Structures are given as structure tokens and as C-alpha cells.
Recover the amino acids of this structure.
């Protein structure tokens, strides 16, 4: 952050944590309540049932006082045993981290490589599973929306690939940067464990994470031998029946979650998805009009929540981000691991509207003008034109 006071609102356009709307901040600005009292039980039951609607599941939802990484660990420790193999797709930085975690937990991993410019290819998963005659692979793990690259994977196709190969592997999906922003159907897509976090589409501060758990995953948890204590699903499921938790829940974040759910249902979840799709499309049009490259190469895999922009060789994306921050008080996402310095990421998710997007793109365009990065002016105008036409159609 700049050291001196900068007037006006800071533009937090990283791909999460996203902007927390005032309504949610106010909902959390409330004296702490007894987490073993009826008021909290009523609140938590409302949140659990609201989250089931968000995951589109009738099965179990677990809420942890943890970041998304905790919910990754919960998914693995509850279902897997030491020496089990999981098949993962290296869609980017976050898929790699999940894989590293599995290895640390004593799980063997097989990683299908990608060039970090597309989502998972379902046929590659199918081919690998068909060859696994001895059912060595116990789970397929996929990141739905790879936040480091802006590429989405088609989870329905991954499910079909598992079914077509007649393989019994569980399907585990990370939706940390897609849930409540892009359509997602835990039950209909046959997902066994969905992992999510509070700080992106749900518009909350970081601090809550989630597992949605199928009956199959729950029964796998009965024979898993990796110790799960803090993460154990059965303790949560037993306590949650009354609205209680096995340990102190993050009470004030539940006030926020309740408010976030009301806001999402009030806008209409399909409308929320459409809004994200519109902003993602407008952003890509701007990037193309600037003559810059969207990192994601597959149009069908474009993320609705963020766009990673690849700078031409010899231009440092982190230096560019510094100019944006210094001149316009706006934070953009950095390139992670092997994309460090090569891309900047524009977050367009959560509590976000057309004018916020126009300002974001305007800041980027003005900052581009202060650099030697080869580009054409007019990207913001192109996005504005698209938004105008889209809004007229929808009216
Ligand atoms: C797709 C994805 N998975 C996992 C994580 C890790 O979550 P957390 O940082 O909340 O532990 C992130 C964080 O941004 C993410 O975007």
C-alpha cells in the first residue's frame, strides 16, 4: 500500500480475496454471541442450508474456520490412506500446491501436465483411468477455476470421463475461485468432495472454508487411515445436527456468510453467474483491443472470475503492477511461480459491477500508456461498448 493517504477507494482487483461489500461488513460488526447458544445454532443451520443451495447439493456441507488450504487438507485426509494414488491435472500453481500437499500427507500422485494455458482435458483423464486396471487410483483431483492462469475446467466432462472408463475413483474439485461466481453442481456433476473458500465469490473476508461431501466420500472416510482430527467430517456432521460445531466456529464470519447468502439469493444465483460471464467477456475484449494476449488459449476454458494477461517478452508484469498501484491506487494480481513477472491478473469477481470494471480497465489502460509495453489504446472503450449493448439487450 502507498505510505501516504490516498483519497478515494482502493481498487482491489486481485482475483480474491475480493471486495467485501459494506452490507457484509456491517453484518459482521456485531458483538460476539455464545457459540453454544440457540441464536448461533439458528444462524449456523441457516448458513449450512444456504451453502447446500450454493453447492447445489442435498448432501453434507462442512464449514471450517480455515483458509481454502485447510479444506484441501480436509478433502484428502478424510478420504485417502497412506500410499493411495491420486490423479491430478497440473492446470497451474494451485493444482501444483494441492499435489504437493498430497505428497506431504503420504499420498502418491500422478500429475497430468499442461502448459498452464488451458483447463483439464477430460480425455487424458479417461485414457489414464482406462489403463489403471488394478484401480490403483483412488481419486481424481481437479481445480475448477485455476486462479493462477484464468482457465476453467469442465467438471461435467471430467465426471463423464470417469464414468466412461468404468473406474471407481472419487472426484474431488477445488472451487475456491469459482463457487458462487460460475455455475457449479456438486450433485448433478457427481462430485464427491468439493472444496471452497469464503474470500472470493462469497464476498467474505478470508477465514472460512468448506467441503461438500457425497455419501460415497463419507463412506470412504470410514476406511481412510490418514489421521484427521481437526478436519474430521464425522465430528462436524454429528454436531451440526443441532447447529453446533465440534470446536469454536468463526462466529462473526457466520453473520457475514448469512448476509452474503441473502445477497446472492436476492440477486438470483443465475443472474450472478451471468454478471460474472459478462464482465469476463468485456475484460477479454479490452485485452484483445489493447493487442495484448489473454493467457488462457482455449475459449471454452475462459474463467469468469479473472483474466490473466500475458505481457510480451522483455516486459515485467510486476513493474507494470507497481505503476498501476502507484498511479491509480489499484491492486492487480501477480503472476505465480513460473508465471512470475510474465502475467498480471485482473480479478472481476464477487461484489462487482459495470462501472467498477470500466474504472479497472481505465486504470490499466492509463498505466499502459506510461510504459513501453506495445499496445493500442481503446480497450476500455471496446469493453464499454460491449457492456452498453449487452445491457440494452437485457433490458
Ligand atoms: C484455486 C485455489 N485453490 C486454493 C487456494 C488456496 O486457498 P487459501 O489461500 O485460502 O488457503 C487458492 C487461493 O487463492 C485458490 O485460488
Amino acid at each position: 500500500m502507498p505510505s501516504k493517504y490516498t483519497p478515494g477507494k482502493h481498487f482491489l482487483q486481485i482475483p480474491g480475496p475480493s471486495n467485501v461489500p459494506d452490507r457484509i461488513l456491517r453484518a459482521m460488526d456485531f458483538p460476539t454471541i455464545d457459540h453454544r447458544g440457540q441464536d448461533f445454532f439458528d444462524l449456523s443451520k441457516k448458513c449450512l442450508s444456504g451453502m447446500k443451495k450454493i453447492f447445489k447439493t442435498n448432501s453434507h456441507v462442512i464449514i471450517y474456520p480455515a483458509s481454502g488450504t485447510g479444506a484441501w487438507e480436509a478433502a484428502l485426509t478424510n478420504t485417502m490412506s497412506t500410499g493411495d494414488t491420486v490423479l491430478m491435472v497440473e492446470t497451474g500453481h494451485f493444482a501444483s500446491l494441492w499435489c504437493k500437499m498430497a505428497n506431504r500427507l503420504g499420498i502418491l500422485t500422478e500429475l497430468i501436465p499442461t502448459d498452464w494455458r488451458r483447463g483439464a482435458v477430460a480425455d487424458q483423464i479417461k485414457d489414464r483411468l482406462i489403463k489403471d486396471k488394478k484401480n490403483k487410483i483412488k481419486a481424481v483431483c481437479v481445480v475448477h477455476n485455476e486462479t493462477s492462469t484464468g482457465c476453467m475446467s469442465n467438471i461435467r466432462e471430467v465426471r463423464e470421463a470417469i464414468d466412461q472408463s468404468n473406474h471407481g475413483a472419487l472426484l474431488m474439485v477445488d472451487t475456491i475461485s469459482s463457487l458462487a461466481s460460475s455455475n457449479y453442481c456438486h450433485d448433478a456433476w457427481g462430485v464427491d468432495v468439493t472444496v471452497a473458500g469464503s474470500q472470493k465469490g462469497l464476498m467474505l473476508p478470508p477465514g472460512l472454508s468448506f467441503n461438500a461431501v457425497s455419501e460415497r466420500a463419507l463412506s470412504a472416510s470410514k476406511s481412510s487411515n490418514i489421521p484427521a482430527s481437526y478436519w474430521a467430517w464425522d465430528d462436524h456432521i454429528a454436531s451440526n445436527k443441532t447447529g453446533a460445531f465440534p470446536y469454536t466456529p468463526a462466529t462473526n464470519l457466520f453473520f457475514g456468510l448469512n448476509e452474503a447468502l441473502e445477497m446472492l439469493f436476492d440477486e438470483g444465483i443465475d443472474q450472478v453467474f451471468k454478471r460474472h460471464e459478462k464482465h469476463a467477456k468485456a475484460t477479454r475484449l479490452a485485452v484483445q483491443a489493447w493487442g495484448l494476449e489473454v493467457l488462457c488459449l482455449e475459449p471454452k476454458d475462459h474463467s469468469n472470475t479473472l483474466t490473466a494477461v500475458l505481457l510480451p517478452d522483455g516486459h515485467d508484469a510486476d513493474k507494470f503492477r507497481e505503476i498501476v498501484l502507484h498511479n491509480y491506487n489499484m491492486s492487480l494480481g501477480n503472476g505465480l511461480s513460473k508465471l512470475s513477472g510474465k502475467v498480471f491478473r485482473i480479478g472481476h469477481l464477487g461484489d462487482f459491477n459495470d462501472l467498477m470494471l470500466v474504472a479497472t480497465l481505465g486504470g490499466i489502460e492509463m498505466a499502459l500508456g506510461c510504459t513501453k509495453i506495445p499496445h493500442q489504446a481503446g480497450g476500455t472503450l471496446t469493453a464499454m461498448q460491449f457492456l452498453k449493448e449487452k445491457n440494452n439487450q437485457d433490458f
